[in-house]
Specification:
CATH class of the largest domain: Alpha Beta
Strand content: 15-25%
Oligomer: single chain
Number of helices: 19
Radius of gyration: 22 Å
Largest sheet: 8 strands, mixed
CATH architecture of the largest domain: 3-Layer(aba) Sandwich
Helix content: 40-55%
Number of domains: 2
CATH topology of the largest domain: D-Maltodextrin-Binding Protein, domain 2
């Protein structure tokens, strides 16, 4: 399927360069392994049925936010739709790199974005920039939380309910941390600022903008303490290490946690996921139309199609992540009678007692102590420099051990093939 998709995309690129009507071409740039590719030809057919116009999708992928952004900033690519992470949406919005979305041009009966936008998503995107409503320029695609994935045979729920579990000497050499400075800095700062948060002298949202030298130094000092017990700083292999019982604590994303929990259960390893009591961060990826897009109409219709409930459900099932879609059909597809009832009224109005997986959809009490990460702008280099110092200075012995183990695992995976669905590698710098 991927080879076929690649060949079709390559042929389409050649066709574009030869000069056909650009209005019949839609160029989409998305994360790897982040869509059910069978929905693409369905969109082409749906678009023709609804508009009477032919469209061909040129679908390409990226693995790093900044790779995508660089192409847009330089104006070297005329992508019509891209799917950046929250802080990149904020950066593009602030830099004037996005076109406004004209959903009023889509007939009301199948304007799925207006019909299915969650009130929670609407508010979170409104908070991205107080001066510019991001809802006018972007539509959330997938979302999740950052928390602790842990081995229930080795770690208690109480131990995992604090971010300080990553510093607990009891688990030294078995702790995995995402190689994602933004997703580590926020939670650690939240942990370190508990007194101020409880006193009300600072809010979670204010902390998400805190790039002060004092806070960076505090987080760096804490991570240096954590470092000696870290088995590895990982972009994608951490969940595999957890399923193989090599790691027992992992600072991770909820989507990866779901995959790991399911995989581990098949081999008799019990994992669970929790958002620590101190608070945490939520993340989003969303569809936008870049400044240099050539087919704004088809781009708008494509984003709308991705918000159709059945399409959202299929993309969830394929990727393992949670659609940022407030349609009741999406909620109904996730009902699991084995789960305890939780309050999702913040996301689905009226759904104050529904049985769904709380790793996928956090209870309102969890969301109330979470905040959206923000772009640091000119201060980003300070964050990256701190991260490089923490990782690069005197790597722990555990790290070198893991490098050797990982090399063996990778070789075995190449020979045997990876079991189960893949999950994208999210690189959030």
């Amino acid at each position: 399927m991927k080879v076929k998709s690649f060949l079709l995309a390559a042929l389409a690129v050649v066709a574009v360069s030869c000069g056909p009507d650009r209005s019949q071409i839609l160029k989409v740039y998305n994360w790897s392994d982040y869509i059910d590719e069978s929905v693409i030809p369905e969109f082409e057919q749906w678009y023709q049925e609804k508009t009477g116009e032919e469209i061909h999708v040129v679908y390409q992928t990226f693995d790093v936010n900044e790779t995508m952004l660089s192409k847009i900033e330089k104006g070297h690519e005329d992508y019509d739709v891209v799917c950046p992470s929250d802080y990149i949406i904020e950066r593009m919005l602030n830099s004037g790199l996005l076109l406004p979305l004209d959903f009023a041009s889509i007939p009301e009966e199948f304007n799925y974005i207006s019909l299915n936008k969650s009130p929670y998503i609407r508010q979170v995107f409104r908070d991205i920039n107080p001066s510019i409503d991001a809802n006018d320029y972007s539509v959330a695609y997938m979302w999740g939380t950052t928390g602790i994935l842990y081995n229930t045979a080795e770690v208690t729920a109480e131990e995992a309910s604090t971010w300080d579990v990553i510093r607990n000497p009891k688990f030294a050499g078995r702790v995995l941390i995402k190689d994602a400075p933004r997703d580590v800095y926020g939670p650690v700062l939240i942990y370190l600022k508990q007194k101020e948060l409880q006193e009300g002298s600072v809010t979670l949202q204010e902390l998400m903008h805190d790039a002060s030298d004092e806070s960076i130094a505090a987080v760096e000092a804490y991570l240096r303490e954590v470092k000696e017990g870290v088995l590895g700083w990982e972009a994608d292999f951490g969940k595999d290490q957890m399923t193989k019982n090599r790691g027992v604590v992992s600072l991770n994303w909820s989507g990866d946690a779901v995959w790991a929990i399911d995989e581990a259960a098949q081999v008799g390893v019990s994992l669970d996921y929790i958002v620590p009591q101190e608070g945490s961060t939520v993340w989003f990826d969303g569809w936008v139309i870049p400044k240099y897009a050539k087919n704004q109409k088809a781009a708008t219709w494509f984003i709308d199609f991705m918000c159709r409930p059945d399409i959202a459900i299929r993309n969830m099932e394929e990727t393992g992540y949670v659609a940022a879609n407030g349609a009741m059909e999406v909620l109904e597809s996730q009902i699991d009678e084995d789960c305890d009832p939780i309050d999702l009224s913040y996301f689905f109005p009226g759904a104050d007692s529904v049985r769904v997986n709380p790793v996928l959809y956090p209870d309102k009490s969890v969301i109330d102590r979470c905040a959206l990460e923000h772009d640091w702008g000119a201060d980003t280099d300070k964050l990256l420099a701190m991260w490089a110092r923490v990782k690069g200075d005197n790597a722990s012995n555990w790290t070198f051990i893991l490098i050797g183990v990982t090399a063996v695992v990778v070789c075995a995976a190449v020979v045997a093939g990876r079991r189960g669905k893949s999950r994208r590698r999210r690189s959030r710098r």
